[in-house]
């Protein structure tokens, strides 16, 4: 649904660890059909994903994992949060 709903004109890169859910053939086929490039961490290197884990940890802490009135409100709040850091 995310791929269908957000058809981005830019070539996306989907960053994952080597978890089975991301390495499975069916999952990878979905990404290929959508022309999304998959970037996996290197085998045995737990630090490959550290930067993104840190980013998401900060995001969760600063957003306080609040409940939102609806999806529109959540998207607005998240866009404002990200926009602040993109300035």
Any overview of this molecule?
The model has no long low-confidence stretch (mean pLDDT 83). The protein has helices at residues 2-5, 20-23, 25-33, 50-63, 71-85; strands at residues 13-16, 37-40. With 87 residues, the protein is mainly α. The chain folds into two domains: 1-46, no CATH class; 49-87, no CATH class.
Order of helix and strand elements from N to C terminus: HEHHEHH
Proportion of β residues? 5-15%
Number of DSSP-assigned strands: 2
| Tally of distinct domains | 2
Question: Counting H and I runs of at least 4 residues, what is the number of helices?
Answer: 5
Task: Provide the structure class.
Answer: mainly alpha
Largest sheet: 2 strands, parallel
Helix coverage percent: 40-55%
Rough outline: globular
Q: Output the strand order for the largest sheet.
A: 1-2
Mean pLDDT figure:
83
Low-confidence segments, given as residue ranges, are: none
**Cα end-to-end separation:** 30 Å
**Which radius of gyration do the C-alpha atoms yield?**
15 Å
Q: What labels describe this entry?
A:
single chain; 87 residues; mainly alpha; 2 domains; two-stranded parallel ribbon
């Amino acid at each position: 649904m995310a791929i269908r709903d957000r058809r981005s004109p830019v070539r996306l890169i989907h960053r994952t660890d080597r978890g089975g859910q991301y390495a499975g053939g069916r999952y990878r086929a979905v990404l290929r059909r959508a022309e999304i490039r998959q970037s996996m961490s290197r085998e045995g290197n737990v630090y490959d994903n550290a930067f993104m884990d840190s980013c998401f940890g900060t995001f969760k802490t600063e957003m306080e994992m609040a409940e939102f009135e609806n999806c529109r409100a959540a998207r607005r709040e998240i866009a404002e949060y990200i926009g602040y850091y993109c300035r």
